Amino acid sequence: MSARASAAEPSRWRDAVIERVVRQTPRVVSVFLRASLGRHQAGQHVDVRLTAPDGYQAQRSYSIASAPGREPVELAIERLEDGEVSPYFHDVAQAGDAFEVRGPIGGHFVWRPEDGGPVLLVGGGSGVVPLMAIERHRAAAAPATEALLVYSARTRDELIFRDELLDRRKSDRAFTLVLTTTREPRRDGVDFDRRLDRALLREILAGWQPAPRHVYVCGANDFVEAVTGALVAEALDPRIIRAERYGGTT
Amino acid sequence: MATRGFTGRRPGTEAAQRLPPGQYQTHDFPVLSMGPTPSVDLASWRFTLSDGPRPLASWSWREFENLPRTHWRGDIHCVTKWTKFDTSWEGVGIDELFAAAGVAPPTGYLLAESYDGYDTNLPAADLVGGRGMIATRYDGAPLPAEHGGPARLLVPHLYFWKSAKWIKGLRFTARNEAGFWELRGYHLYGDPWREQRYTDDP
Fold first, then answer.
1. Distance in angstroms (rounded) separating the CA atoms of residues B122 and B132
2. B2 CB near a chain A CB, below 8 Å?
3. N or C: which end of chain A has fewer CB within 10 A?
4. Which CATH architecture has domain A113-246?
């Protein structure tokens, strides 16, 4: 193995220093960090390891929100009720603090410019984070590739990256954004305010026109199960649909 | 290197002993998969043992349900870091499967293959001696589709990506051929107690 060892070797834990912590929504902060990680692919995640003074350690995985090659690396971390690690990032972490990271990790839920498009991204809640890395990468590295992001959140204030996405909607002709808020009326006629079910997905896809070549769905398990099931029922080839889920069944 | 201001929430003594390194206990049953949950029809379901391209034995769902049953209760460990204690499974043990087919493992390695195109590689030795089964029931009920139903592999001493959901067969291979996640950065063997998560882990 040592012959292949390189800066990109994912298995080594590396020091990460927080450059800044930015509140995105009431439940999500972005943590910008400096670490000697190898260049990631859009959609990948890192493992994070925190160490208590007595040596006790806790690990979690977080998706990367920033585009490949961009420094500092941005993680967007949702505060979980009863969480062990996410409250640290919300309540304690500040610029200059250090922890450990390992990665980048994951070779399936990724998009590369050479994969082409059209690209359909469907995110629920904090599931938008790896999709944001893909969209940012597409805009920077393959701006002619068409993409549709369908993004569901409970309320407008819980839309992570809302202002950046709304700016992109106005300025990027290859990028289509459809928001749906499930607990608040929509503000814009192109958006929706109901659950993302099969009928709504059909309506959105009909309005978009391009036939997706790659599909990425990320969110809570119930969301991903419903969306991927609906897309297959709408005759999309299951082999073009990549899924990433969190949570599960009781 | 301590992380300023991090204290953590330590598991109790018993839980700490049961948790492999880097894992935490979860009480729900998380779902992970590479894509959509496939819908697998029991009327056309088959489970096939193969030696490379050559079928050795094959069962319909009804035939499979008539094989001797086995039970297992214990802890499962996912590479995404959750561990679930005291899970309860029922299915057909791999020992019993080989006995029913009248075959011994023809090679030292195999690929577990699934209806959604997923596969994962295992040493044959890790499935025998009571260490592996094709599970069709979880917690006293038919295995839900999200968790791999109608049937999944259960190899609980390895990280759970090895316990392939929606399984359709075991294919013996001459060499240890990397499967889906093993080709995408994950460890060739995947022992949670040695924390073999990623390709470069020892």
1. 11
2. yes
3. C
4. 3-Layer(aba) Sandwich (3.40)
